[in-house]
Automatic annotation (TrEMBL):
Residues 159-395 form the Sigma-54 factor interaction domain. SUPFAM superfamilies: CheY-like (SSF52172), Homeodomain-like (SSF46689), P-loop containing nucleoside triphosphate hydrolases (SSF52540). The modification 4-aspartylphosphate is found at D71. The keyword Transcription applies. One of its GO terms (molecular function) is ATP binding. It comes from the Bacteria. Keywords: ATP-binding, DNA-binding, Nucleotide-binding, Phosphoprotein, Transcription, Transcription regulation. Residues 22-134 form the Response regulatory domain. This is DNA-binding transcriptional response regulator, NtrC family, contains REC, AAA-type ATPase, and a Fis-type DNA-binding domains.
Length: 477
């Protein structure tokens, strides 16, 4: 179930890339402060200057800076008095101390400062330090947003269904959680397979919630949607100058996952060179940014998902066999909706209630003809298609019931007409049609030796539709 995203998302999306980074300089030496401010402005920063703690507090409230350059010795107090307030607000602080005042620098770092500078300050060093503090602030905002979003969304994620297939998936998730609880080691890698729309992302989120604390990051990487020229930098990060547009250092999504979970959706879309780098991360549990020689340890759980046949891709040389076997430690196969006959109506009713709550609408039940249509349809887009079609029907419904016209499934106009005919004709007509249909089904089952799938093929309907009619007419196999 989707939740309303917090306001921080709008700030992150709308303001992160479309405005200059705001830097507040709190320094009482005016001449020095002017030189620093000019340097920052020339480098593209939006810089404001305060000379006291009190005026600094006012500017913080007004401009909401990303980075604060804070002198430790000010006319109205020690910079440490303000530092803790800034850190609590998620602002990166660079402490500035006079030469020899090592104690101030130590106290500042213990209080949460991102970095410190010793006076007299080298302006080039100052720009590099501000850049690092800015990146630290961006990463913190990203992770804070991720945690808030997950707190709203993950705790309400459910893998709904009473079918044996879904019960087995839930049992597998519980088993992985039990394994993770017995050891301090990182939970095992899990590969989730299944057609598009079967709920692989839901299973991944449930795995994350079951194996880690909910306040740890859940980083979702859609390998199919990231541009090929950017995906390596997005995953592994880069150092300044690693490529033409790398104007600064940046951590990647693997680092951002910290000790939470990294969900690699559509992992089969990764190129062979990237597959080799990912294998190295999984094997050695370290990541190295582009253009760097330093390695960072990786503590995240890896969850991969694909709608492709990776084994076939291995045979065709399009997927590394060693990576396939490394990912294939624990495998979950999400069943298509057409194989979850017992769950379709339950899911449809759940999506009706969900849409009505979200938009404050009155309850609208399905008509009998609509229920027939929902069971007739094969749902090639699986649960995702069911959810979107049901939501659309609820929003367009003007009567007391959701009708086949509201549902408007593609390619089932004749089924809709037949369902309407059966529901609106006289009792005699309905009885005649039902008798004929029951006879056809019994004959098909007799000719196929009670093979339900073969009988369904003979009649030109789905196995699911056949099972529904067998139950409806009480036919014994």
């Amino acid at each position: 179930m989707q939740a309303q995203l917090p306001e921080q998302e709008h700030q992150l999306q709308a303001g992160r890339w479309n405005r200059k980074v705001r830097v507040l300089l709190i320094e009482d030496e005016v001449v020095f402060a002017r030189a620093v401010a000019k340097c920052l402005q020339q480098a593209g920063y939006d810089c404001e200057h305060a000379t006291t703690l009190e005026s600094g507090r006012e500017l913080v409230r007004r401009m909401v800076p990303s980075v604060v350059l804070l002198d430790m010795r000010l006319p109205d107090g020690n910079g440490l008095d303000l530092l803790s307030e800034l850190v609590a607000r998620g602002i990166s602080v660079v402490a500035m101390t006079a030469y020899g005042e090592v104690t101030d620098a130590v106290h500042a770092m213990k209080s949460g400062a991102t970095d410190y500078l010793k006076k007299p300050i080298d302006l080039d060093e100052m720009l590099l330090t501000v850049q690092k503090a800015q990146q630290a602030a961006q990463l913190k905002h990203h992770l804070d947003y991720s945690r808030q979003r997950n707190a709203h969304a993950i705790e309400r994620v459910e893998l709904l269904g009473d079918s044996e297939e879904i019960k087995e998936i839930r049992a597998q998730i519980e088993r992985v959680a039990q394994i993770a609880a017995r050891s301090d080691a990182v939970p095992p890698t899990v590969l989730i397979q299944g057609e598009t729309g079967t709920g692989k992302d839901v299973a991944a989120r449930l795995l994350h919630l079951s194996c880690t604390n909910s306040n740890r990051p859940f980083v979702h990487v859609d390998c199919a949607s990231l541009p090929a020229e950017l995906i390596e930098s997005e995953l592994f990060g880069h150092e300044k100058g690693a490529f033409t547009s790398a104007h600064g250092s940046r951590s990647g999504l693997i680092e951002a996952a910290e000790d939470g979970s990294l969900f690699l959706d559509e992992v089969g879309e990764l190129s062979l060179p990237l597959q080799a780098k990912l294998l190295n991360v999984l094997e050695r549990r370290v990541v190295r940014r582009l253009g760097s020689t330093k390695e960072y340890s990786v503590a995240a759980q890896f969850i991969a998902a694909t709608n492709r046949d990776l084994y076939k891709m291995v045979q065709e040389g399009r997927f590394r066999s060693d990576l396939f076997y490394r990912l294939n430690v624990l495998t979950m196969k999400m069943p298509p909706l057409r194989e979850r006959e017992d769950d379709i109506l339950l899911l449809a009713q759940h999506f009706v209630a969900q849409t009505e709550r979200r938009y404050g609408l009155e309850a609208s039940p399905f008509s009998d003809a609509t229920i027939d249509m929902i069971r007739f349809y094969e749902w090639p887009g699986n649960v995702r298609e069911l959810k979107h079609q049901i939501s659309r029907a609820v929003l367009l419904c003007r009567g007391e019931q959701i009708t086949p016209q509201d549902l408007a499934l593609p390619g089932v106009e004749m089924q809709a007409a037949r369902a309407l005919l059966m529901s609106e004709q006289s009792e005699l007509m309905v009885t005649t049609l039902e008798t004929a249909e029951k006879t056809l089904i019994e004959n098909a089952l007799r000719q196929s030796n009670n093979n339900v799938s073969e009988a369904a093929r003979q009649l030109g309907i789905t196995r699911m539709a056949m099972r529904y009619r067998i139950d409806r007419y009480g036919i014994k196999l």
